[in-house]
């Protein structure tokens, strides 16, 4: 089963540079093609994030409850992210029927998450990573240019910065499937933020991840 998922992963993430695997995954890079995401067989680190209500949120404790589909997106200001959030919402019942919980993480503040959830009528949980802990620990962090940051601001968006960093940081959009031990069974990471995993493929990967 894991071999099948590894083959799928290799095909889907072929756009990532080979050199990315040698990087410290927590490093914030200047090119999204050079991120070094966690891979199949590696474990999600423990970290404290925040719910949409602003309450502390232990990622590992949550992962221990059920197999998890974990989605990283850039923010509620991103039209491609919003389209993906809605697509995932359409298959949420199928995901839940397989025994999964669904979580979506972004650098948005808790209040921004509340707005996104309400506007998109989402039934799954949005988690705030405004301190960029998860973005870095999962190896997805990259700097954006000042010019692009101004473009984000022009459409009402807001990006996050690490303490002492003069550049804004975003996550490369990604999907991870994890078991209750927090071990990654599947991942899809594409530095082209306009390309997202199709819901049908996600459902297939989720089914395969449950097989022994």
From TrEMBL:
Its EC number is 1.11.1.24. InterPro entries: AhpC/TSA, Peroxiredoxin_BCP/PrxQ, Thioredoxin-like_sf, Thioredoxin_domain. CDD domains: PRX_like2. Residues 38-211 form the Thioredoxin domain. It holds the Pfam family AhpC-TSA. Keywords: Antioxidant, Disulfide bond, Oxidoreductase, Peroxidase, Redox-active center. It catalyses: a hydroperoxide + [thioredoxin]-dithiol = an alcohol + [thioredoxin]-disulfide + H2O. Belongs to the peroxiredoxin family. BCP/PrxQ subfamily. Thiol-specific peroxidase that catalyzes the reduction of hydrogen peroxide and organic hydroperoxides to water and alcohols, respectively. Plays a role in cell protection against oxidative stress by detoxifying peroxides and as sensor of hydrogen peroxide-mediated signaling events. This is thioredoxin-dependent peroxiredoxin.
